[in-house]
Amino acid sequence: MFTARRMGAALGAGADDDPQAARIVDAALDEFREHGLDRVRMEHIARRASMHRATVYRTFPTKDTLVGVALTTWVQRVLGDIADAVADHPDVRTRAVEGFTIALRTLRADPLTNRILLADEAGKPFLVTYGGALVDAARTFFADQLRLADDADGIDPDAAAEIAARLSLTLLLIPDSYFRLDTDEDARAFARDHLLPAAIPDPATS
Length: 206
Hints:
The chain is an all-alpha fold. Helix content is 70%, strand content 2%. A hairpin with a 2-residue loop joins strand 1 and strand 2 (124-125). InterPro entries: Homeodomain-like_sf, HTH-type_TetR-like_transc_reg, HTH_TetR. Residues 18-78 form the HTH tetR-type domain.
């Protein structure tokens, strides 16, 4: 079983730096999107990647290892795309609002999100077992982004990133909400009115 500790360790290293591993991971992600994590076997992934099964096993000795690295790579790509998309916005609070909006839209639109939400691991929902490691990855990434910002003085980057990551994960896990989040404007309004005051309070109003 791919334990939560091993998932946490894997989150530091995706597959995009290794062309062969990236090809296998891309095939795995496509299979997971279409069929879910539980039903896909290594031979399915090998066939989609146009590789011999032995080659896949040499790169990823077990399916659990491949699942961990594939989801790591997926998370890294999503976070990287968000960071690129908000890089030109003028201030840290605007970047946070737009980043939340893009993340919510992207993750809701990706079939892999629902596959992960519905997946089981040892009789428990996948995110109950591995959610902490995924939150930790998102928190680390966004905290690092805050530390690089020129206008983030007075902000606790780890606390802000933790609040944003956990709140975002909750909205994905339980999409029914008092708050309207059907459109990008809904998401921006929620982020401005509720996420920012909790995660990145404005010192002018403190």
